[in-house]
């Protein structure tokens, strides 16, 4: 009977695979710059770009706001090769006047608690870096800044939304600095999912997902920078805080939400918001069970139709009751006891039915959570282009930790939905506080690394004044190179090429061209048409020049060039034709005419002997004669810069400079 009644809460694997596909689409929407403004799942960049690598060390503070308690931590991190850290914590209540008061009071309360903690631990006179775990959606533009988008869970603090929570905390701490002698540097704002991932990542380098299932629910994971169009740069990875609690706020899950979900939402602090979270987290599951039991009782299916005042009271059934009722052995007796406390008089059948309601509600929670997690795991696997992936999910939250069967149900569902992912679930032993300290430690490590890199690369950063000096020196060298009396000592040789004009469009005919200058050698046939149907057609073949030829004798090099020409002429079927040839020779040559060029010196790894001081055109003619298979009319020897200027000059008559920046 209960099964029939609660049929809409039971989700098949097909439905879960569909939820998984919907969430994957939402992730893509949230990551896109153009689609993010209308996305329900905000996919917020966290500016955490690296997991701990074990080299972090130091003394850190962390504060953690977001759950049922406020926590202050001191974390000592040791770079001893054993990934070890030491945590000292103190828990403080979060009374309603703090969670639903005004912003100044909230941040003063945090500063008070931190001050008390530092006094307890005798840290008052130390300046320590602090990581701030803040478990609410924030838009971050850097690691130490975050604007609150909206409150979730049971928090409703006035005057904080749309402001930077780090600067609010800093202001509150500054007020304390003078009167209480505390000096703290807030270096990182971290979502609790990110803190959890970092905590677990310190123990297991494979951890790249953080998951919270407690008062609220959310997940983060390491995304490729190339897919995050909200942030500049595409190298490496960054942790994305999905804020998946809002999945379905745009109606994407309306077909799966039941009348009980709708009723619960209407009675919540934030109607229409965090709809996915309201189907999963511990803040809502007890209330969901109460609403179901109330309706079943009113319809005469439970307790002989007799409703108690307690059952009519919002919040009377909490997650701790649901967990107790689902316990393996004492579940039934716990159920009887809890129902009796609610002034209901249950029969044995009533207890079994109520227990079943609890099971169905918490099972649905685990299944929905598994579907969204499976979407993240699939995205990670596809990003890495792997058929099968091993990874670790760092996990925290009261519901996962204290419910007797939740973890097992979640793990089983994930393994069914993503059989190609081998997932290890790692419980965060010390919560997200240690993670915030580790984010701060990683930030300090990366900052120090950046400083070292910056100082090493400093000499390569050329300020405008230096560039102006280079320009002026180059100008002077150009002048020296052009003058007969100073040319011999000039470093910039300014070699005349005997090319006295650029193309004017009247050129036509068939030409051969050779291009030698890198590790490859090109032979080209170029057909030029002039007039109205002006065009250039090119046919070419590339040949390799082996290292032993580049560094052998001059005769071997030019014989190899002629061998390549012979192969090309054969390939094009023009072996008998005596075509004019231009030779691009990308090495410094002293020319006395356009078809004469004496090699000044080899560059770019060429070291062929008996060439320097020789005319390269004569060496090519000699090699052609030695082969005695064809004849060519060598008309011009040209440097590659000149070739580039002429090519571009054919397209644009204004071109009067050729520039090469390559090998």
UniProtKB/TrEMBL annotation:
Which species is listed as the source? Alaudala cheleensis
Xref: InterPro entries:
ATPase_NBD, Hexokinase, Hexokinase_BS, Hexokinase_C, Hexokinase_N
| Cited function | Catalyzes the phosphorylation of hexose, such as D-glucose and D-fructose, to hexose 6-phosphate (D-glucose 6-phosphate and D-fructose 6-phosphate, respectively). Mediates the initial step of glycolysis by catalyzing phosphorylation of D-glucose to D-glucose 6-phosphate. Plays a key role in maintaining the integrity of the outer mitochondrial membrane by preventing the release of apoptogenic molecules from the intermembrane space and subsequent apoptosis.
The yes or no answer to whether the keyword Glycosyltransferase is present is: no
**Which SUPFAM superfamilies does the annotation name?**
Actin-like ATPase domain
- Mind listing the GO biological process terms from this record? glucose metabolic process; glycolytic process; intracellular glucose homeostasis
Give compartment(s).
Answer: Cytoplasm, Cytosol; Mitochondrion outer membrane
Family membership: Belongs to the hexokinase family.
Q: Which GO terms describe its cellular component?
A: cytosol; mitochondrial outer membrane
Hexokinase C-terminal domain boundaries: 209-442
The reply on keyword Kinase is yes
Q: How does it sit in the membrane?
A: Peripheral membrane protein
- What UniProt keywords are attached to this protein's entry? Acetylation, Allosteric enzyme, ATP-binding, Cytoplasm, Glycolysis, Kinase, Membrane, Mitochondrion, Mitochondrion outer membrane, Nucleotide-binding, Repeat, Transferase
Q: Where is the Hexokinase N-terminal domain?
A: 2-202, 455-650
- Do you know which PANTHER family this protein is assigned to? HEXOKINASE (PTHR19443), HEXOKINASE-2 (PTHR19443:SF4)
- Which catalysed reactions does the entry list for this protein? D-glucose + ATP = D-glucose 6-phosphate + ADP + H(+); D-fructose + ATP = D-fructose 6-phosphate + ADP + H(+); a D-hexose + ATP = a D-hexose 6-phosphate + ADP + H(+)
Q: What is its EC number?
A: 2.7.1.1
The name on file for this protein is: Hexokinase-2
Give the quaternary structure. Monomer. Interacts with TIGAR; the interaction increases hexokinase activity in a hypoxia- and HIF1A-dependent manner.
Which pathway does this polypeptide act in?
Carbohydrate degradation; glycolysis; D-glyceraldehyde 3-phosphate and glycerone phosphate from D-glucose: step 1/4; Carbohydrate metabolism; hexose metabolism
Q: Which superkingdom does the taxonomy of this entry point to?
A: Eukaryota
Listed GO MF terms: ATP binding; D-glucose binding; fructokinase activity; glucokinase activity
The gene for this chain is Hk1_1
